[in-house]
Amino acid sequence: MPASAAFPIDLSADERMDDGLLDRLRGDDLTLVVSVIGDRIATSDGTLAIASPADVGDATWAFLGRAPSGAGVLLAVLGDREASAPAGEWSAFRDAAVSMSQPEVELGTSAVALGRWLADASFCPACGSATEQRMAGWARGCTQCRREHFPRTDPAVIVAVMSEDRQRLLLGANALWHGEMFSCFAGFVEAGESAESAIHRELVEEAGVRVRDVRYIESQAWPYPRSLMLGYHATVVDEAEVRPDGEEIVEARWFTREEIGRGLAGELDVRIPGGISVAHRLIRTWYDEAEDPAP
Length: 295
Hints:
- By secondary structure, the protein is of the alpha+beta class.
- It has 3 domains: 13-119, no CATH class; 121-151, no CATH class; 154-287, Nucleoside Triphosphate Pyrophosphohydrolase (Alpha-Beta Complex), CATH 3.90.79.
- The chain is 20% helix and 31% strand.
- It has helices spanning 21-26, 93-96, 102-120, 195-207, 257-264, 278-287, and strands spanning 32-37, 40-44, 47-48, 60-66, 72-77, 89-92, 131-134, 139-142, 148-149, 154-162, 168-174, 185-188, 211-222, 227-236, 249-256.
- The strands form 3 sheets. Strands 1, 2, 3, 4, 5 and 6 form a 6-stranded mixed β-sheet that branches. Strands 10, 11, 12, 13, 14 and 15 form a 6-stranded mixed β-sheet that branches.
């Protein structure tokens, strides 16, 4: 059995409709199992640990996909039942992900997000009755009102704000970080908002700035709680408007390209986000742009 899941998986979503899939895969010695307890995930020497079904005791099971070998990949959600967990290390996913490969991060994100939903979705939010698992763990059905429920994903925006000449980057220090790390500005999309509307609202609320030339860069799924981070670049309208809200954002600071370079190398007086995050990639994308401030 491999020690880690350093491979991309095929979600093989069409198999979720097979009612006997989970039982068959649990009885197959070649099946690979990723185990979670809340937001903690099984690791081995800093990588995502893989178990076999026989290693796992009582659990809630779900189908994650197929490995390149064709072996099934299952999720085992252990709740607080550590006694049923396979032997190994247990780490909060946001900490463990720092040392993982990108395929491991993607698999771990799916495992933690789906696992937390399965642990929380035992009762119907509409009528309070018990739900039963369907679609190999990707849906639950109410036993009384018959409503179907699916894992929810909440969209959030995250924005790297550039100066008018595009040569500096505005980053903010969240109160939770005690001023030790600066990152892009982010927030959830509210009911009835577009992603672009959320960007304008969040930046006015958190940093006091208006922006223009909003440009989508890339997205990232993130299991805290179950988010889809939509990453953008934007250009400030008036640099003099910068005013952190003092509650969520305790400081907003302009960084030169040279300072960002030192931050990426870990040589700045404050930290910037690590390589697994979309915030890091937004910053890196800006840093790698040509020095010529093209419009």
